[in-house]
Design goal:
By secondary structure, the protein is mostly helical. It has five domains: 80 residues, no CATH class; 209 residues, Rossmann fold; 103 residues, no CATH class; 243 residues, no CATH class; 218 residues, Tetratricopeptide repeat domain (Serine Threonine Protein Phosphatase 5, Tetratricopeptide repeat, Alpha Horseshoe), CATH 1.25.40.10. It is 55% helix and 5% strand. It is built from 41 helices and eleven strands. The strands form three sheets. Strands 4-5-6-3-8-7 form a six-stranded mixed β-sheet, sandwiched between helices. It has a three-stranded antiparallel β-sheet with strand order 1-2-9. It has a two-stranded antiparallel ribbon with strand order 10-11. β10 and β11 form a beta hairpin. α24 packs across α25 and α38 packs antiparallel against α39. The longest helix has 21 residues. The protein is elongated and about 125 Å long.
Amino acid sequence: MAGRDLRALFSTNSDEIGTSEAFTDRGAQWRAVAAALGEHLARITGEAFDVQDLEAPRRNVLVFHGLGGIGKSTLSRKIEAALTDPARRPAQWGEPAWPAAPRLLPVRIDLARSAGADFEHLVLSLRLALARTPGLPLPAFDLALRRYWDAVHPGEPLEEYVRRRGLAARFGEALPGQARTAVSDIAQQLALPGVVASTAGQVAATLVRSLRERRENTRALAGCARLADLLDADTDLESLSFYPYLLAWELARLPARKAVVPVVLLDGFEDVGDRTHRDLERLVQRVVWLMPNAFFVITGRSRLQWADPALQGQLDWTGPAAWPHLALPASPPVPGARTAPDSGGSVGIGNDVDGGTGGRQILIGDFSPEDCDDHLARRLTAADGQPLIDPDIRAVITVRSHGLPLHLDLAVLRFLEIRRTRAPEPADFDHDFPALVARSLQDLTADERHVLRAVALLDAFDVPLATAAAGMSHDAPALRLAERPLVRDNPQGLWPYHLHALVRSTLRGADDLTDDRWSEQDWQRAADRAHTALGGQWAAAAGGRSMLVGCLRQGLRLARDHRLDLGWLADAAWAYVSDSVWEPLAPPAADTAPGSGLGTPAEALVETLAALAARQREHRTHTADRLTRVIDSRLLPADLTDLALYYRAKAHRDLGRTVASREGMQKVAAGTTRLAPAARRGLAHLARLDGDFPTALAAAQTLGWAGRQHRVLGDLWWVHAEMDQAAAAYEAARTDAEQHAVAGERATAQAQLAFVRAFTDPARADDDLDLADRLLTGLDLRATTLTTRIAALARDAGTPGDSIPDRAAALDAEVRASGVRAAHTTLALALCFHHAVLDDQAAVATAVRDLDQLTRDHDYAYYTDIAHFMADLPLEYPSPARWFDSPDLVRARWRHLVTARRTHHGL
C-alpha cells in the first residue's frame, strides 16, 4: 500500500533515503465501508428494490468527515485501491463479507478546487468509468449526453474535451465512440436517414415522438419512464443533473452476469459549496438521489446536512425521512449542543470510528500515539531500511501532533530541511506550523473565523460563552462553528465543546498570516471578554461546585496569561476555599517554580490556590515556601493576603513550627477578613498543642460555626479520654457542616468521629469509617484521609494475629511524606494503644520511647503522658500539660479504654 512520497523525495538530494508514502491502518473506517456496502448490495439485489422509485428513502451514502489534514483523501484513495484490486487491500483490513456478484466498479472523483472539477467533470467521470466495462451499452444516457454536448459545447468534440481535461488518461477514450454508436443505433431503430442520424438533437426529437406514440421500434427504451421528458427538456446544466437517472435505469436492467455496481468516492466535498451557496451541492445531491443502485462514499471536512429539514428549498431532498442514515440521532436539547452517537458508530480515539453525527456520518479520529510513531518510522528510511527519524525525535513530533497526520507530514519535511545543514534534534520539533492555521481557517466564514480565534483562548466552551468571548450579538457563527470537525464535543462535559488540541495550540502559537489576523490588542480584548463571561456563568450557577472549579481553572489562566484584573476571581477563590474540597486548579504552562518572580495579582492568586490544592499531595514545607513567595510579592489585596498568611500558618503548625504558626494566626485573627474566626480557631489549636487545655477551651467556646467550635471541642475532649463527649462534639460539627453544605468539613468531622469511636466501640467505628470514606469520595483531603487510616489501626488494636505493626510502618511512610506532624504523633499513639492492649511490655517500651522522641521539646508532649497512662506505667517526667481535671483521673480513663479492649478480645 506504500507508494513514493513525492514531496519528501524532492526535498533532498540523497538517493539513499527511502521516501515511502506511509499509510497508517484505518481499519475501523474500512469495516464501516464493508458493512455499509454489504447492506447496500443486499438491498439493491432484493426483489422489492425499484431503481425508478423516486420517493423511497436513500440509504446509499456513507460520509467520512474530519479536520483538514486528518487523512480523508488518503483514506479515499486506499478504499478505491482496495475495491479495484483485492491484492492492494491491507491484510489487516480483512476480507469483506459481501457477495462476489454483482461486480463493484470504484470511481473516485476529486471535487477539490485544486483539482479543477466541476459538475460536467463529475458526470463524465461516471460515464467514462462505466465505459471501461466491455459490452455495457448505455444508449439512453449516451443519446441525452450527445444532445447536451452538441448544444452546450458547439464545435468542441467530446473526444477533445475528454483528452484535454485529463479524463482520457484516467478512464480511457471509449466514451466518445460509444456515444456515437449509441446515437447511430437508435437512429437505425428509428429508420432515420443518414444526414439526420448524425445529429443527436434530431435523433432525440424523433425518439421522443416515437416514445410518446408508443411505437414498436422504441420498445427497448420505453421502460425508462422519464426518458422522453428528459430528452424533451432544455439542454442545460440543470437537465444534465437529471441524466444520472438514465444511468441508474440502464444499470438496473443489465442481466445478472453483467451487473455492475458503481462505488463512487467523492473526495474534497467541502469545496462543493458552503452553508450559503449550495448550487453545486444541489446538483451533486441530485446525482446521489437518482442513482440509488450506486453507492457513494463522501469525504469532506464537514458532515452532510441533507437530513436537516431546514434546508428544504436549498436542496431537492431534505429531512430524516429522505436520508435516514444521515440524520442526527436526536434533536439537541440545547441550541448548538450535539448529541451522543447512536448505534451507527462507536465513540473512540485513534483509529476508532467516532460516530458523533449519525449512523452513516463518521468523524475520522486522530492517529493513536502508536500509529503516529509507526507513520514516522516508515515515511523516511535509510539505505539499510532502518527509520531515518530517531525515536526521541519521533516521540516529540507525536506529542506535538496530537494525532493529526498533516502535522506529521509537515514535521517530516522540516526534518529533511534541517538535515541539509546539521543533525536534527528533538527540540527542533517542539514547533507549530502556520500551514495548519491556514488549513483550519480556509473553509470558515469571517464570523466563524472570529469565533474560532476567541474560543482558542478557552479550554472548553458552549455557544453562549463562545459568542460572548467573540463579542458578537448573535449565536449563529458559534452554532455553525460547533458543527465543524475542528470542534470536538463531549456531551457530558461542563461545557460541551473544545477545539482540537493541535488547532488550538497552533492558532495561539504560530504566526497567523491571514488577511483578517488578530493583533495583540484583539487577543487581549477577547481574553477580557471571555474572562468576564466566565464570571457571569459562575454567578449564574448559584453555588454549583463544578461550575465554580471549571470557571476558576479557565479564568485563572486567562487572567494570568493576559495580565487581567482579578475581578470575580477573588470571590470565586473564597468560594473555592470555603468547601475544603481542594480540586487541582493550577493551569499549565506557567513559571511557578520557586525562585521565579510573580509579576501580577493573577499570577500570585494562581500560585496561592495551586499551593493550597497541592498541599494535599506535597510535603508541608513546599506549601509554606510557596505561600511565603506569594506573601513576599505583596501583589494580592489584603483579604487574599490573609488567605495566604492563614494557610502558611497552618503549614507551619503541621511542621511543628509553633512560633511561626502562632505569629501568622495572630496577624489574621487581629483583622476583620473572612479568615479571622478560623485564625482564632488556629490559636486554640496551638494552645492545645502546648497542653494548655483551659486556654484552648476558653477560646473554643467563643468560636461559633465560623471557627468550627464543635470540632475544636472534640479535639480537646478525646485527649482527656472523654470519648463520649468528643463523639457528641464531632457529631454536632458534622451536623453544622451539613447544614452549611461544606463538604470538606463534614468529611473531617466524620473522620474524627470514627477515630474516637475506634477506641471505644470497634463495631460502630466500622460504620463510621464507611461513612467517612463515602464523604471523602471526590475530595482531596490528605490529612483527613490519614486520620481514617489511623482510626482503622485503633479500631483493630489488640486483634490477635493482626499485622498492626506492619500496617503502621507502611502508613508511617505516607505520613512522613505529607509532613503533617499531627498525623505522625497520632499514629505513634495508636500504636502504643495496640501494644498496651496486648500487654507486650517490650513493644510498649519501644513505642513509648519513639513517641517521646517525636514530642520531646516539641508540641504534643502530653501524648507521651497518655502512652504511659494506657500502659499503666509510672510517669517520672510528666509534660507541663494543664489537664481539665487531675492527671490521675485522665490516667484512669485511658487505662479503662485499654482494659475494656482486652476484655473485648478475651485477653
